[in-house]
């Protein structure tokens, strides 16, 4: 058994496999995931797990260059948006429309589906390098 870090074997393998500029999506429970895109479903029930704790666990092991999220997030879920910015204080955030975010899903290395039920709580992590 691993001592620390990501214990979920699929998440651990995903982070190890991710290369520079590749995309990993963290999704709420309702985001429509294209059938050809790998989905790692960690949802247990509505609200479990929430997206931000999953993000924090991933950030412990993944270099993130930038993040994309829906412009609608700021308007429809301002509290969640503020919490997200607190988790990613030094990471540039690019706001795109929710439709544009969904159009980017086929390019994702994988989508991690959480139990998050906050409206528009979906983010695209653009992987970086540690050198």
Description:
It is an enzyme of class 5 (isomerase). This is D-ribose pyranase. Substrate binds at residues 28, 98, 120-122. Pathway: Carbohydrate metabolism; D-ribose degradation; D-ribose 5-phosphate from beta-D-ribopyranose: step 1/2. This protein has a six-stranded mixed β-sheet with strand order 2-5-1-6-3-4. It is globular and about 40 Å long. Helix content is 31%, strand content 21%. With 131 residues, the protein is of the alpha/beta class. The mean pLDDT is 98. The chain has a single domain (19-127), classed as 3-Layer(aba) Sandwich (RbsD-like fold). It has helices at 9-17, 51-59, 72-76, 78-87, 98-104; strands at 23-27, 39-41, 64-70, 93-96, 110-113, 123-127.
Question: Any key phrases for this structure?
Answer:
131 residues, alpha/beta, RbsD-like fold, 6-stranded mixed sheet, globular, intramolecular lyase activity, RbsD_FucU
